[in-house]
Design goal:
- By secondary structure, this protein is of the alpha/beta class.
- The protein contains 8 helices and 13 strands.
- Helices cover 34% and strands 29% of the residues.
- The strands form 3 sheets. A 7-stranded mixed β-sheet has the order 7-6-5-8-9-10-11, sandwiched between helices. Strands 2-3-1-4 form a 4-stranded antiparallel β-sheet, covered by helices on one side.
- The model has no long low-confidence stretch (mean pLDDT 94).
Length: 286
């Protein structure tokens, strides 16, 4: 087993005196050197948020031991917290339908090393993008779905999640609504990309609706998936200005680029443990 070199601690709790002092003391006592620290106190909710990355400096610390030792401190402040090995690559499962732009963008970032994750599988309800998966050397699972087979198909997806030890499911333009059974199994572990700024145009042909309304700013939204459709906590939004000359095809083309960027940012920040839930919102230490 590789030696633990760096850890990431993220936490939230009621804002009160002594949190940073206590966390810093905990790290110092274990010879951990703080390499990066970000904090935020939300005056509306009264919650405090902290993300710290610390180097072990050959102290011999283990992630299990650090988690065990941090427990009493976390209990004292009633913290919601996570402590991760910064060197561990999170495992992603990518779900996609027929549109491949977001999938290709994530796979390219992974291949070039800018997205430090493991991607052991791609799942799709259509066979169209199998050749793209083959080009990147990643196993492709074609799991078609109909209203009558949805429960069986989602059970197969969850079996892949469990079998591969998946940390995060990414809906890279997966044009299926996940049932509460799946969403509840993976709280804050599913990220979706929406082809617009939420809230925005609903229903069919959003690009045509944008065109018909003469919008001047278009965008894309990456968010966590909850049981409420397209109402999960927003992680990232990207925008672009357009003018009267932009027809629906131009709007769609620009939106595809925005979707790639928003989704990539959201996934990157999530796997680096920079996203903390704040009720219906998020705190993002980018």
């Amino acid at each position: 087993m590789a030696e633990l070199e760096s850890v990431i601690l993220s936490l939230s709790c009621a804002d009160q005196i002594g949190i940073v002092h206590a966390v810093t003391g905990y790290l110092v006592e274990r010879s951990l050197n703080i390499a990066e620290s970000q904090q935020f106190g939300d005056p509306d909710t009264g919650r405090f948020f902290l993300r710290v990355q610390a180097d072990t400096g050959g102290s011999g610390a283990t992630i299990e031991g650090l988690r065990r030792d941090f427990g009493p401190l976390a209990d004292r402040f009633a913290m919601t917290w996570e402590l991760h090995d910064a060197g561990r690559r999170p495992v992603l499962l990518l779900l996609v339908s027929k549109l491949g732009h977001c999938l290709n963008d994530l796979l390219y970032r992974h291949q070039t090393g800018s997205l430090a994750v493991e991607i052991p599988a791609i799942v799709s309800n259509h066979p169209d993008l199998e050749s793209l998966a083959d080009m990147y050397g990643i196993p492709f699972h074609h799991l078609p779905v109909t209203p009558d087979t949805k429960q069986e198909q989602e059970a197969a997806v969850l079996d892949i999640v469990d079998r591969l030890g998946v940390d995060l499911v990414v809906l890279a333009r997966y044009m299926q609504i996940l049932t509460p059974d799946v969403v509840d199994r993976l709280p804050s572990r599913i990220i979706n990309i929406h082809h617009g700024l939420l809230p925005g145009f609903e229903g069919a042909a959003p690009h045509r609706q944008a065109f018909d309304h003469g919008v001047k700013v278009i965008g894309a939204t990456a968010h966590y998936v909850t049981s409420e459709l397209d109402d999960g906590p927003i992680i990232e939004q990207t925008t672009s200005r357009i003018d009267h000359s932009a027809d629906p095809s131009r709007i769609a083309a620009v939106t595809r680029d925005l979707e790639c960027l928003a989704l990539a940012h959201a996934v990157q920040w999530h796997v680096e443990h920079r996203v903390l839930r704040n009720g219906p919102k998020t705190v993002v230490f980018d």
